[in-house]
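testing teh design pipeline on a random one, pls ignore if ur not involved
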């Protein structure tokens, strides 16, 4: 039973959803950060966490 690349897509998408929630908690656009997260993944998480709340 192999995982294949599908597991990575699910994880990346889940991370993007989590980042959207974090961004909304800091009064930023959840949709924009979701899309950014699909491109740069964990780096987006870092940017959201270290950014100041608006």
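output:
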């Amino acid at each position: 039973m192999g995982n294949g690349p599908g597991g990575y897509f699910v994880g990346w998408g889940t991370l993007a959803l989590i980042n959207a929630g974090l961004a909304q908690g800091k009064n930023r656009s959840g949709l924009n950060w979701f899309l950014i997260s699909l491109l740069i993944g964990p780096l987006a998480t870092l940017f959201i966490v270290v950014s100041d709340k608006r």
